[in-house]
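TA notes, week 10

Several of you asked for a full example with nothing omitted. So below is the full record: structure tokens for the whole chain, then the designed sequence directly under it. When grading your own attempts, check the secondary structure regions first.
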């Protein structure tokens, strides 16, 4: 057969020159739907593969991905976008509106404006928080580059977001100041970086990492609220 991308003749499933798939089926509504569903539901690759292995073997999945074994693993940024989208759907479906009387306090106004920003731009704020978490993990755990920490923490934030999306059915608490979020982050980071079965040092390092991350987030939220009050 002739490769549709580089015109090389070959008899393999994938082109030996450019890697293009050899037998590409014609695009139909059915093929598009099946491909999309397979990306999400296939336990051997994609969304559910990440979900399962980050629950059962987070350290192995991270080490495989950083080491170059990418087969079956959904890209961490794509996984995080999926997770945030699911969280926002749950929030819209199960959010309970709580009316509050606006108070004439400077600190209340800062909190009110920060909350409005997070409500309007949560998706971008939470995805960008990969950077702050990565600065924290890079400061405490030094064996990877900052870019590798960002890939790792995209997985970590995505997994945490999915768990919080399910817990939203019960607690209905915003993600930024939900203490359960930080407990999950501590657990996942510990499981990724631990060196032995009961690694107290790595556990304390994980706690320190998340404390740094929390204070970074809190400072950013307060700063955003302060800026928005000055713009009124």
């Amino acid at each position: 057969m002739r490769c549709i991308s580089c015109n090389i003749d070959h008899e393999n499933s994938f082109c030996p020159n450019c890697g293009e798939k050899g037998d590409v089926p014609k695009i139909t509504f059915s093929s598009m739907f099946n491909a999309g569903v397979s990306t999400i539901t296939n336990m051997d690759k994609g969304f559910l593969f990440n979900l399962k292995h980050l629950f059962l073997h987070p350290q192995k999945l991270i080490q495989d991905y950083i080491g170059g074994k990418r087969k079956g693993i959904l890209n961490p940024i794509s996984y995080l976008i999926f997770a945030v989208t699911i969280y926002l759907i749950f929030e819209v479906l199960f959010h309970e509106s709580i009316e509050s009387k606006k108070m004439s306090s400077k600190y209340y106004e800062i909190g009110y404006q920060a909350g409005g920003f997070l409500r309007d731009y949560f998706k971008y704020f939470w995805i960008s928080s990969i950077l702050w978490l990565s600065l924290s993990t890079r400061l405490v755990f030094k064996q990877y580059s900052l870019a590798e920490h960002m890939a790792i923490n995209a997985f970590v934030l995505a997994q945490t977001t999915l768990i919080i999306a399910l817990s939203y059915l019960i607690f209905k608490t915003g993600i930024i100041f939900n203490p359960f979020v930080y407990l999950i982050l501590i657990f996942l980071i510990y499981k990724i970086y631990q060196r032995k079965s009961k690694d107290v040092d790595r556990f304390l390092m994980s706690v320190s990492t998340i404390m740094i991350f929390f204070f970074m987030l809190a400072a950013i939220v307060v700063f955003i609220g302060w800026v928005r009050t000055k713009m009124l």
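Helices lie at 29-41, 47-56, 58-67, 76-94, 106-140, 146-171, 179-193, 200-231. Use that as a sanity check on your answer.
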